[in-house]
Design brief:
Elements (H helix, E strand, L loop, with lengths): L1 H23 L4 H5 L7 E2 L10 E3 L5 E3 L7 E7 L6 H16 L6 E7 L7 H9 L6 E3 L3 H10 L4 E5 L7 E5 L2 E5 L5 E6 L4 H11 L1
Parallel strand pairs: 4-5, 5-6
Antiparallel strand pairs: 1-10, 2-3, 4-9, 7-8, 9-10
Bound molecules: nickel (II) ion.
Length: 205
Amino acid sequence: MRLDKRLMIIVAAGLTLGAVAALLTLPGLRERLAGAAAPVTSVGKAQVGGPFTLIDPAGKRVTDKDFLGRHLLVYFGYTFCPDVCPTGLQVIAAALDRLGPKADRITPVFISLDPERDTPQQMGEYVKAFHPRLVGLTGTPEQIAEVARAYRVYYKKVKDEKSTAGYSLDHTSIVYVMDTKGDFVAHFTHATAVEAIVSRLQKML
Ligand code: NI
């Protein structure tokens, strides 16, 4: 009886998490959820992150090894994103500014999920509009697929008549906080309050 109850709770929790994940991938709904302050969630070592090879704005090859020794904020999106990505990047920039000099120990990274349109140069120019230290990375479709898989990021092309290229991307909007060894520490979203992010980052630094 007791075990049954526990199982039911586990199943219910699993279903809830699944439902939340499904909801977060729906365009528009994600935006509406933004009203509710999303918490900064920390869990034990999660299977998030891992090796990657990408291309920096200068066209140079970069890997996860180049970032070892740095705390990272890793966010995925694309420069043609109409709303969610700009919000996420603004939240990251605001948190870094609020942290003050301590923020120098953090490298914020924006990885493109749209390698067809996001050239290295475009990524470099785009991120500078949000924060001078933001690093914009892109790659080949295969490199992007690999890093997205490592960070468990969902993305999918959807038909969009309003977009000049005829498509937009439906994608996960999660900012991953990684430690100096490349291990996952916590995550937040574009809807998390800046104060909550700052206090969590302060604990890590
Ligand atoms: Ni986006």
